[in-house]
Amino acid sequence: MRAKRISTGAAVAVGALAAASLAFAPSALAVTPQSATITADCGSFGGGAATLTATQDGTSATLTLTSSAITAPIALSADSISSTLTMVKASGGTTAFTGTKNPAMAAGDPVTVGPLSGTVASGDSLEAYGGSLQMTVFGITITCTATAAQSPGPFVFD
After folding, report:
1. Sign of CA dihedral 145, 92, 86, 124
2. Per residue in 81-140, pLDDT tens?
3. What are the start-end ranges of the E strands in the chain?
4. 3-class SS of residue 74
5. FRET pair for 146, CA 20 to 30 Å: which of 6, 36, 65, 74?
6. Helices (H), the chain
7. Any signal peptide, and if so, which residues (predicted)?
8. 155-157 and 31-32: which strand pairing?
9. Is the full-model pTM beyond 0.85?
């Protein structure tokens, strides 16, 4: 009888400990803000407002750029744009997000590239202003730069 009470008590203690561990577990990593706007200049390919959307999973992060002001010069098939988005670190240096992800677009459609993948560290603060987006389409490289700081502010990664 005594062994039964000890094992029941031990099971209750283990269950309480597990519940407490979950209550105090660190929350999932997140980037703030999750989206920001910039004004981009893409030279003869146009320019205007664009939205950057960020996600984070540990040290892996993605950025997606969408813009109705910047349009596809020709019809493009899905995953046909090779893109590198270079962001400026507040601590100095840059972080590159790369990939060939994009939806199919007809000529004149709004441009979307991403999600582009990169690596971040906890506390990284990344800003588009001072960086660039290079998109290569059929061997032609289009470079876009932000004309001012992103709003509401830089992406800060947990």
Report:
1. negative
2. 999 999 999 999 999 999 999 999 999 999 999 999 999 999 999 999 999 999 999 999
3. 31-32, 35-41, 47-57, 60-71, 82-89, 94-99, 110-119, 125-137, 140-146, 155-157
4. coil
5. 74
6. 2-23
7. 1-30
8. antiparallel
9. no
